[in-house]
């Protein structure tokens, strides 16, 4: 229940539906009880057991309400039967019963009608909040999480919470009220018999609670397993070429089969335990009713302290408790399952984002002087990636970072864009520490072209205009021309409105990369970060992309992380990195004359 208290904040915008649901549930519980009590006058008329009263009874206060109602009923039956006959009186009683059952079912429907808006509203808002949080969380968070597990939390876990919402409202309003109204009426009809029956109720409750004890733990395990096999699906779809190329279909199929087998066993255990609740509560209820029949029959036949119609209605009321009792036991299991799901959802929603705007963060919309990286240290886990690293990047200059894999080049790009935060030292733009800038404005100053062309299953226009959503077709075409991409886009069937498929798989590697460059060109930022933008391309594509990059970098400050050294020979400054430190720096000519690490790297690539 602790987790549900936190989830309930998502119900606040829909509280009017919750109030209407509660009102309808109260009326449902009231008419459910009255519909059973209405059997008494019908049976009384049917078997002619009404006491002959010809004068209207006098109300003697709340303490004599029961006897007043009985006397008034007998008076009505006597006078109506004498004046209109017993058949008419029976018809009136049947009409009352039908009306009460109609009202009961009407308010039942209305209660479900209003709760639908609450449940679906909470589902929508929870999913929106989850997606927003997933987008906001730093990249470091997802390096430790399975994508499938995150997908499972947004989809099935949130759905489980939605189902549990209905259960919890039944648990705290509808079914308890039905039971309370029924018990009050039973006490009114026969306090002695009701006390006798309720000696056995705590025993039933204890047995039902024992059954559901392990349900939350098993539900949690099942949700984790579901996240695992969704991860396998996600990895399989992303790596089909490798799986087929290495004949690994059976290996991945066996992994998936093992996971679904574990999920199958957990699901069977959960559902069997959950399904046991309803028959168990009903069987225990029937035992209570059997005892009630024996003791109540004794009161009717031997003691004469209870009349037949009242006893039959009493049995109906006792059985009327079974349905809500079953619903409560079933709902309590739903809450336990939902609690496990809520815990997993809240783990993400309550995750603190270490990379967030400072309370006094400033908005910076222009780049005037320089970028300074001063004495920064950074490590992902144990090993330091950058050690006391410093670099000055003046406005309008192109600075290239080169070095072997693992030397820390891409880490610089991640720190400049604040995908990660430095652990020591600082990075500043025009003298302002980037941690004191609004993230939105910081990233608004930068364009990013990565080694992997990250495109989305949408049109070329939608992919290129990500950084400028209101861009016109003419602006997009101009950006495509700068990126050497319009030549192939113009011959596509629908031009810039052509859908490029999942991850842009309808295009070649060079085409995808040129679209990524066009996206950065259209954004038109003053600072450009190119993270090995040509390393995954063939020679012909590289030349086209390189030309596009040169067009884009004109009059811009650029940080180029390069694998192929031939692409950065015109850079204003080349920084050679080795194990997180600067080994040497200078222009291409200066570094070649120095005959150091850079020249060795160039010679190695020339030899290749």
Give an account of the 3D structure.
The protein has 608 residues and is an alpha/beta fold. The relative contact order is 0.08. It has 22 helices and ten strands. Strand 7, helix 20 and strand 8 form a beta-alpha-beta unit. The model has no long low-confidence stretch (mean pLDDT 80). The chain has two domains: 348 residues, ABC transporter type 1, transmembrane domain (ABC transporter transmembrane region fold, Up-down Bundle); 238 residues, 3-Layer(aba) Sandwich (Rossmann fold), CATH 3.40.50. Helix 4 packs across helix 5. The strands form two sheets. It has a six-stranded mixed sheet with strand order 6-7-8-3-9-10, with helices on both faces. The protein has a four-stranded antiparallel sheet with strand order 2-1-4-5, covered by helices on one side. The protein is elongated, with a radius of gyration of 37 Å.
What is the topology?
Blueprint: H1 2-7, H2 15-37, H3 39-46, H4 65-84, H5 86-136, H6 139-143, H7 147-189, H8 191-197, H9 201-211, H10 215-238, H11 240-245, H12 249-303, H13 308-349, E1 370-379, E2 384-394, E3 398-403, H14 409-416, E4 424-429, E5 432-433, H15 439-444, E6 446-449, H16 460-464, H17 473-482, H18 486-489, H19 509-523, E7 527-531, H20 539-553, E8 557-561, E9 573-578, E10 581-586, H21 588-594, H22 597-607
Parallel strand pairs: 3-8, 3-9, 6-7, 7-8
Antiparallel strand pairs: 1-2, 1-4, 4-5, 9-10
Transmembrane segments: 20-47, 92-118, 171-189, 195-212, 283-302
GO cellular component, one term: plasma membrane
Keywords: ATP-binding, Membrane, Nucleotide-binding, Transmembrane, Transmembrane helix, Transport
């Amino acid at each position: 229940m602790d987790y549900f208290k936190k989830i309930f904040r998502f119900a606040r915008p829909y509280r009017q539906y919750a109030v209407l649901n509660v009102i309808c549930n109260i009326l449902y519980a009231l008419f459910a009880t009255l519909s059973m009590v209405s059997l008494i006058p019908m049976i009384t008329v049917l078997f002619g057991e009404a006491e002959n009263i010809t004068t209207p009874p006098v109300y003697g206060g709340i303490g004599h309400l029961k006897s007043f109602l009985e006397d008034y009923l007998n008076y009505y039956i006597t006078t109506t039967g004498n004046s209109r006959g017993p058949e008419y009186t029976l018809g009136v009683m049947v009409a009352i019963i039908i009306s009460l059952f109609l009202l009961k079912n009407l308010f039942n429907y209305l209660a479900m009608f209003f709760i639908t808006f609450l449940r679906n509203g909470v589902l929508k808002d929870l999913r929106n909040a989850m997606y927003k949080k997933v987008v906001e969380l730093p990249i470091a968070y997802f390096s430790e999480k399975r994508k499938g597990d995150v997908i499972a939390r947004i989809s099935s876990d949130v759905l489980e919470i939605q189902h549990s919402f209905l259960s919890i409202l039944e648990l705290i309003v509808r079914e308890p009220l039905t039971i309370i109204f029924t018990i009050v009426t039973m006490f009114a009809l026969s306090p002695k018999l009701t006390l006798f029956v309720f000696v056995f109720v705590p025993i039933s409750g204890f047995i039902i609670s024992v059954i559901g004890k392990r349900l939350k733990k098993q539900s949690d395990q099942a949700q984790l397993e579901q996240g695992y096999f969704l991860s396998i699906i996600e990895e399989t779809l992303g790596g089909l070429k490798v799986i087929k190329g290495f004949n690994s279909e059976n290996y991945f199929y066996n992994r998936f089969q093992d996971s679904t087998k574990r999920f199958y066993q957990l699901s069977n255990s959960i559902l069997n335990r959950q399904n046991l609740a309803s028959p168990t509560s009903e069987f225990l209820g029937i035992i209570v009713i059997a005892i009630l029949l024996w003791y109540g029959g004794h009161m009717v036949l031997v003691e004469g302290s209870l009349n037949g119609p009242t006893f039959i209605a009493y049995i109906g009321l006792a059985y009327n408790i079974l349905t809500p009792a079953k619903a409560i036991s079933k709902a309590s299991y739903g809450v336990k399952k939902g609690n496990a799901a809520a815990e997993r959802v809240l783990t993400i929603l309550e995750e603190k984002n270490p990379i967030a705007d400072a309370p006094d963060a400033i908005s910076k919309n222009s780049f005037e002087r320089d970028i300074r990286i001063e004495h920064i240290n950074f490590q992902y886990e144990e090993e330091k990636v950058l050690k006391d690293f410093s670099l000055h990047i003046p406005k309008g200059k192109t600075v290239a970072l080169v070095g072997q894999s693992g030397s820390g080049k891409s880490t610089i790009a991640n720190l400049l864009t604040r995908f990660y935060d430095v652990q020591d030292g600082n990075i500043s733009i025009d003298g302002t520490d980037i941690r004191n800038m609004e993230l939105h404005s910081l990233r608004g100053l930068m364009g990013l072209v990565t080694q992997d062309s990250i495109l989305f299953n949408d049109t070329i226009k939608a992919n290129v205009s990500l950084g400028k959503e209101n861009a016109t077709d003419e602006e997009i075409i101009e950006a495509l021309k700068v990126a050497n991409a319009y030549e192939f886009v113009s011959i596509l069937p629908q031009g810039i409105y052509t859908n490029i498929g999942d991850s842009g798989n309808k295009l070649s590697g060079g085409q995808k990369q040129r679209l990524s460059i066009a996206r950065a060109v259209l954004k038109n930022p003053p600072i450009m970060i190119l993270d090995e933008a040509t390393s995954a391309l063939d020679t012909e594509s590289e030349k086209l992309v390189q030309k596009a990059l040169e067009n884009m970098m004109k009059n811009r400050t650029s940080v180029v992380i390069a694998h192929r050294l031939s692409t950065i020979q015109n850079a204003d400054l080349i920084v050679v990195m080795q194990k997180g430190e600067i080994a040497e720096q200078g222009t291409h000519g200066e570094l070649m004359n120095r005959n150091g690490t850079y020249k060795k790297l160039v010679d190695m690539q020339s030899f290749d």
